[in-house]
Structures are given as C-alpha cells and as structure tokens.
Amino acid sequence: MIVSRKSIIVNTLLLYFVHIAFAQTNTGNEYYEKAYTKMADMLDDKAPLSICRAVFMAEWAYLDGNLDYEKDFCEPIQKDVAYVKRWMAANNLSQYKTAKQIALCNFFFYPWSGNGQTPFRYDFDEKERWEHQLVSRVLKTHKGQCHSLPWTFMLYAEELGANAYLARAPRHCYIMYKNEDNQFPEEWVNVELTSQQYIPTWANKEQYEIKDSAVIVGTYLTPLSKKEIIAYQLSELALSYYTKYRICDAFTLKCTTKALEYYKMNPNAIIIKERSLENQLINHLRLNGGYRDSITDNIDRELSQCSIDLRNTHWTQETEELRRKWNKTKEDIDSIKQNAIIIK
Fold it and tell me: pTM for the full model?
C-alpha cells in the first residue's frame, strides 16, 4: 500500500532536495571524516578534550586540509598568551580572582603592542560567506563576527587557563565567566565580543526574544561545559559540510546524532539531523517506489522524536522581523557602545 504521509513529505520536500537526491557520496568527505573522528574521540573519552584542536579540525576540513595546526593556530595563540601573562604581571593583576578574564578582555578590546595595536573588531564585510566565520581568519586579521570572535576568545582562554565559557543565543555566541570579584551586578559576566561590552542577562533575553523556559533547560544564555562546546563544534562541522556541498546526508546525520548525545539542547543540531533524515527518507522512497517498510517506519519514528526534541528546547524561531533586529549595522553597534559599560 502506498503511504500517503510519505507522499506528502516527498511532494513538499522534493523541490528542496532534488539537487542532492542522487548525491550521497562526496570526494571531499575524507577531510570531514577525519575531523568527525577526532571530535567524536574527544567526546567518547578516547582523546583529550581540546577546543583548539576541535575548531582547527572543523576549519581544516572545510579548507580541504589547507591549514596548519602549529603555524595557523598554536603559534599565534601561544605568542599572544605569553604577552598577556607579562601584562598581567606588570599590572599586578594577581589580586583579582578573574585576572585572566580581565586581561583577555583588555587584549581583545584595546590597541596593545602585543596585538599589533589592532584590537579584535566586528567584521561588517560579506557576512554571509562561511570563510568569514573562521577562527583562523580572525587570528590573522583580528576581524570576526558573532560566531568566530567568541570562539577565538575561547581558544585564548583555554591556552591561558582562564575559566571562561561559551554561551549561546539565537544565531549568536558570547562569553560568560563567573563574577568572582563582584565587579558586576550579576552572578555571571556576559562578555559581548562584537560590540566589546558587558551585557546584562535581561538585555540578552529581550534582544533575542528568549523565553525563560529556554534558559531553564539550558538552550540559551547558559555556560557550556567543555564537552558541550566540542559537541557544539561537531554540529558546526555538519553545518559547514552542508554549506560547502549543499547536502544533508549520512555524514551530517552522523555528526548531529553524536553531537546531540553530549549537548541535547542544541536546536541547530536537531534541525540539521531532521533534514538529514528527511533526505534519507526521500532517497529510500525513490528506490522502493514509495511503499512503507521497516526503514520508513524507523525514519518516521526518528523524525517524530526530532520534533519533540526541538520543541523541548523552547527555541526562538526566526522571523523576518527578528532577522532585521539581529543584523546590526556599524552605526547600531557604535550607538550601543556609547550607552554601555565598557570592560576595562
């Protein structure tokens, strides 16, 4: 018997997936497979956890292996962190429990000889290009965006041994650290790298229209553990794969399935997993003539679970109005900075 629900899915999604319906293999996949294995081993305790190595592997895969770990990542970060340590000693920051976090904020936000008089700034050019989201680019140019700037900060924090955490908002990342020196009115300090300021939690909730329930379950405005950060990077590996090859397939399914084992409250990972399953369903139905069988039943159950899991994150669904609100211009950011507490 022909399955009507499957036929509806096919008719709805076929135009979206038609260009990838026959493309289930990819010659560039060997780089992505190696990157997946490295990150999966970290998550499964088969290799030491390293945010720097995870970020490098994801970008190395996207750039077809044209990236060197020591030269492009380790050397510039180690050189800069050595300078930050000297600056901390010269300025007697040992009196502060958050000395390392304070030093890194200063290094990122102000012109120092150690950063070539070039602080880290938001890059307003060509925001839609994936290359402009790469940490390796930030390390060279000191320009980045709401994804690459906080990830870069995390690599410096890891090298310095600073207790900093990545946190998420819809289409956005920022840094959190514990307010151990009571310099701010909240328990956690929210560091916004794109506009170089401290953001109170209520302002983030309002800006990104985040529900209290999404904070409670750990979807947004929550400091991520090291394993959760690497799981998040694994889902970003799947997203870069899709961005590069325009396909959601067995690889993106594998990445997101593993990532969600360790970081369940990631709406992006759930959505990519759902699209991967839908594509798998379309291809199977194409081969078996659109009939129900054990495979379609299994995929159906997984898709239903994805819907439940996504709903349980209490995620903020994008609208055109929200996208306009979130896409700030240079003038918007300059205006915010003039009316905000700048970290010093």
Answer: 0.87
